[in-house]
Amino acid sequence: MDTKSRIIEVATNLFQKKGYIGVGLNEILKECNISKGSLYHHFPNGKEELLITCLQSLNEAVTEDIEGIYHRYATTKEATNVMVEQLIEKFEREGTLTGYTFSSIVSEMAALSDPVREACAELYKKMQDIYYHKLVADGLSNDKAYAYALMMTASIEGAMMLCLTQNSAEPLKVLLKMLPNLIEK
To answer: Could you tell me if 51 and 57 are in contact, meaning their C-beta atoms sit under 8 angstroms apart?
Structure first.
């Protein structure tokens, strides 16, 4: 793995675990075993530029995962069940959902940085678009599919945050029971 990719991987993990404010450049440098000059070579505008790059990388990975699931299953209900089951398994196995949620970054940075807010908004939009297109394929009207896709995005992201704050997979388990029923109706 090249230096830039390593910085992005390490920083993404740290930002997700500790938030933007909770991670200092020195911690990133130490984890990557690089100099400050090396970091600024790849990210001349510093920590915020690095965060935006991490969000874009996370965007690609999360979108690819979700698209893969939604392409493999015939209906939104089936795909959603599989996706939420995978999130539950990950949380129960690792005690975290690193790689899947970035709400902590949104909450601390959205009001402080338009570029960061826009990078986060893009990821939510891509997730919502995947759900929307699958719902339309299931036969929902554009308006209903949009509304359901928004509800799904908010519900899944909210359940993930509740899992982290409660240190329990229960919120995702409840969502697994309830969300497919709402989609079916």
So the answer is: no
Task: Extract the tokens encoding 36.
Answer: 């400050």
pLDDT classification of 110: cutoffs 50, 70, 90:
low
Q: Are 101 and 157 in contact (CB under 8 A)?
A: yes
110 vs 22, 75, 82, 123, 134, CA distance in Å?
16, 34, 31, 13, 29
Distance CA 79, CA 134 (A): 9
Whole-Å CA distances, 138 to 63, 142, 183: 20, 11, 10
Relative orientation angle of helices 170-184 and 76-94, to the nearest 10 degrees: 180
3-state secondary structure of 1: coil
CA distance 149 to 131: 5
pLDDT of residue 152: 94
